[in-house]
Amino acid sequence: MILLATLTPYGWTFLGIIAASILLARKILLRKNENEKPGCIGVGYVATVISVLSIMVFTLSAGMGKTVYHFVVLPKYKATVVDTRSYISETKHKGRIRKTKMFQAIVTFTDNTGNTIVVPTDIGSSSQVKKGEQMTVVYDFDADTASELSVRSFALIFGCCLMLAIMGYFLYAGLVYAFGGAIKPVFNFGIKAALYFLVPFGMLFLLGGLSYGLYNHYGAGVYMPLWAEIVCIFFVVVLVFGLLGYINMLRQKEIPIKVQGVPVMFQMRKRKKR
Question: Would the CA dihedral through 25, 173, 48, 96 be positive or negative?
Answer without folding.
Answer: positive
